[in-house]
Amino acid sequence: MVLRIPLRRSASFTPDHQPGAEAAPPPPPGPVKLEANVVVLGAGSVGKSALTVRFLTRRFIGEYGDMESVYTHTLALEGKEILFHIWDFPCSQERAEESSGEKRIQWADGFVLVYSICDRASFDSLRPRVQVIKAAKEGPSQERVPIVIVGNKRDLHHRRAVSSEEGRLLALSMDCEFYEVSAAEAYHGPLLVFHALAERICEAKLALKKGTGLRSIVKSVSAVFARKRTDSM
Ligand SMILES: Nc1nc2c(ncn2[C@@H]2O[C@H](COP(=O)(O)OP(=O)(O)O)[C@@H](O)[C@H]2O)c(=O)[nH]1
Ligand SMILES: [Mg+2]
Question: Where is this region: Disordered (predicted)?
Answer without folding.
Answer: 1-30
